[in-house]
Amino acid sequence: MVEFRKTILLIGVLLIFSNGNAQLLPAYFDTLERKQEVIIDAGVDYYGSAIQRELTSKFIRGGYISNGIKDNSFNRHSGVNRFGAVGLGTIEYRNYSKKLLKNKDWGFVVKAGYNAFFGAIYSKDLFGMTMYGNDIYRGETIDGSGTNISAMSYQKVGFGMIDVKSKSSISFNVYNVNSRFKANLRDFQMTQDLNGDSIQIIMDGTIETANSSKFNQGIGFGVDLDFKIPFQWGKKNNTSYLQFQVQNLGFAYLYEKQKVYEFDTSFVFSGLRWDQLVGDN
Question: Do residues 261 and 207 touch, judged by C-beta distance below 8 A?
Answer without folding.
Answer: yes
